[in-house]
Write a structure and sequence with these properties.
Pfam families: F-box, FBA_1. This protein is mainly beta and 398 residues long. The chain is built from 5 helices and 26 strands. 10% of the residues lie in helices and 42% in strands. Strand 23 (338-344) and strand 24 (353-360) form a beta hairpin.
Length: 398
């Protein structure tokens, strides 16, 4: 029987398996389960995955996608364009029935927001560890924004993972101003309030992107009261970073464009080293997608390379060529000079399919069908993913 193999031979067999296959391995027998979660084994397996992720000449690579409120691992092949589901990640606390509305990635960990926006869970799909987080008081279902990052005081210290929750909105139904900024520390299993008086706005649909432990957003200057407002086009826009080590928002960082209300602006990470930003203008001409990649990125400084990609979507998708502000989740491959943008089928009043649009230089365009879209409010999301052996510290029992 396979379970009776010597340890070194069993380890060699498991070492050759992809991360999604470990889900089944852990249900095979107790011996294989112990081996698959052994720290020495996980470090070797994760090292292999990271080396593959850094290989520019690889034919395929893996990403995590959230489609139809489910989180799965996909294989992407840009040479012979295809995007295939290769398996469900290790069970979310035996919660295959749990529906997820948003995901945020940092260092191999995922912060997941449930569909009803009532619960948070930090999840390591590789080790199958989870940490459900109870609110300090309560979560706000409509206005909450979230971020996942870590504190690292020096290169020798262990990373301390934290969750940022904040809202800064006016609730017209209750006629009250809502402002809450809180940080949850996974090590101490506790929330604490953070004093922030923002002179900026981050729209609810904007998803922050974590890079080297910090999180970046597209933001705009807070609009003055009604009656004192100038033209929308005059509102300054910028990049904003939350530093999880200092637990403070940094200075405004410049963007390589100027966006106004209705424009599509989306952020993505590139190999956990650089930031990519997608910009698509609303109105005429609304069809051109522009993408830039940073040459340097820090909480208090950024510089941009020249335009990475400029692409006209209209010849390929018709009149409905602008990615909605709630969609447009994307990633890029620098070596092949292409971008993959997730959305729904453009050009239709009622989209019925989830689609990946692959665009590149000289008008290169491919469309990959990701399956039926039965949830009108669920837009597909994507983030790069490399397995991590990070252990999620569990809260002490009450």
């Amino acid at each position: 029987m396979l379970s009776n193999l010597p340890r070194d031979l069993a380890e060699e067999v498991l070492f050759r398996l992809p991360v999604t296959s470990l889900r089944g391995v852990r249900f095979t027998c107790k011996k294989w389960r112990r081996l698959s979660i052994n720290r020495s084994f996980t470090m070797k397996h994760v090292g292999k995955a990271k080396a593959a992720a850094k290989n520019y000449h690889r034919k395929e690579f893996q990403v995590v996608m959230m489609i139809q409120y489910r989180v799965c691992l996909f294989s992407v092949n840009l040479l012979n364009p295809s995007i295939d589901r290769i398996g469900q990640l290790v069970s979310l606390d035996d919660a295959d029935r749990v529906e997820i509305s948003k995901i945020f990635h940092c260092d191999g960990l995922l912060l997941c927001i449930t569909k009803d926006r009532s619960s948070l869970v930090v999840w390591n799909p590789y080790t199958a560890q989870t940490r459900w987080i109870k609110p300090m008081n309560s979560y706000h279902k409509f206005y909450d924004r979230y971020a996942l990052g870590y504190e690292k005081k020096d290169k020798y210290s262990l990373r301390s993972y934290k969750v940022l929750r904040f809202l800064d909105n006016y609730d017209s139904r209750a006629n009250v101003k809502l402002r809450e900024f809180e940080i949850y520390d996974l090590n101490s299993a506790s929330w604490k309030a953070v004093d922030v008086n923002p002179d900026w706005d981050i729209e609810y649909h904007q998803r922050g992107v974590s890079l080297m432990g910090n999180t970046y957003w597209f933001a705009q200057e807070k609009r003055p009261p009604v009656g004192m407002r100038g033209p929308i086009s005059a509102i300054p826009d910028f990049l904003l970073c939350f530093n999880f080590t200092t637990e403070k928002f940094g200075p405004r960082l410049r963007l390589p464009f100027h966006a106004i209300y209705g424009d599509t602006v989306t952020l993505s990470s590139v190999r956990e080293e650089h930031l990519a930003v997608l910009f698509q203008q609303c109105g005429a001409p609304a069809s051109t997608v522009k993408i830039w990649i940073s040459s340097k990125i820090e909480p208090d400084a950024v510089s941009w390379n020249k335009l990475f990609l400029k692409f006209d979507m209209k010849p390929h998708t018709g009149l409905g060529s602008q990615f909605l502000v709630t969609g447009g989740s994307f990633f890029v491959d620098e070596k092949k000079k292409v971008a993959v943008i997730l959305d729904k089928d453009r050009g239709k009043s009622f989209p019925t399919r989830n689609i990946a649009y692959i665009i590149g230089k000289k008008g290169y365009f491919k469309k990959v069908d990701l399956g039926e879209s039965t949830e009108a409010r669920c837009w597909p999301l994507v983030c790069s993913y490399v397995p991590s052996s990070v252990q999620i510290k569990q809260a002490a029992p009450p």
